[in-house]
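Re-running the complex after MR caught last week's input typo. The corrected sequence lines follow. Everything else is unchanged.
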Amino acid sequence: MNFPPSTQPSAQPSLRELCHALSQPLTAARGSLELALRMPPDDPARADFFNDALAALDRLVIIARQLHDAAEIAAR
Amino acid sequence: MRLLVAEDDVSLAKFLRKGLETENYAVDWAGDGEEAEHLAEQYDFDLVLLDVNLPRRNGFDVLSRLRKKKPTLPVLLLTAQGRIEDRVRGLDLGADDYIVKPFSFSELCARIRALLRRGQRPAESVLKLDTLELNRIEHSVKRAGKAVELTPKEFALLEYLMLNQSRRVTRAMIIEHVWNLSFDSATNVVDVYINYLRSKIDEGHQPKLIRTVRGVGYQMGPTPGSDAAEPAAAAAGAELE
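Corrected-run output:
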């Protein structure tokens, strides 16, 4: 099966959903860095894995902002 | 070896496929439970990585149905952190192991290797043909005692050919097992990679072990007395036998 375009978390996910959503990009970021560090410096695939790690970190930033918003709403 | 990754998070699934391919596995992906069950039943996978929270049919249902049809297929569950009940339920339903997200890729690979080892007799871990040896667990290859460096795809291709050395394999079969189900089977990529393998495995050795079968595909086996003729003929697109 081919991969469809990546999807972002839904508009107003719950705290529980957001906490669950953290595990996917954390796994991808950590794993991509593990693989990149294992490769020789001149391997072109190494840069791909660093870029994948960055993309996963971008997703984590989005989720962190959503967690912040959800926590503020919950505190009101 | 061929793995099925059943994971609905597209980015994580992409990473798993890419990462596992660097570990010499052929990887197919299912984005929901129904597709995972269909693919796992229809095709010969060596192991399934099964996320618990899949849309359309959750991982537990897939596992439960799969166990009735393929009781020995190794299944490694991907579970969410802190869900002890998920792990217990999964193991009770017949999962062979589980790993909790977020996980280390090295640990995932070690667990996969352990499960694959468990399912094989020692003789199946090292495939041999004449002076060629392929170690499926260590991912190493030797010809006449000397180490041969192969790319992940070359390794997967040689492994598939050696696993099927008693029969002829078509280009379509090779595409399906070594690449993945979404790969375009109309390309000549198989022939290109066979030539790469020949140059690494057969060049300078006798007998030649990768044979072209006329009108069919390829088969592993000694080709006596063709030291110079076969690579030249193969490069010109000719078919032997």
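None of the earlier attempt is carried over here. Confidence is low (pLDDT under 50) at residues 227-241 of chain B. Chain B touches chain A at residues 9-16, 18-19, 22, 28-31, 35, 53, 80-81, 101-106, 108, 181-182 (CB under 8 Å).
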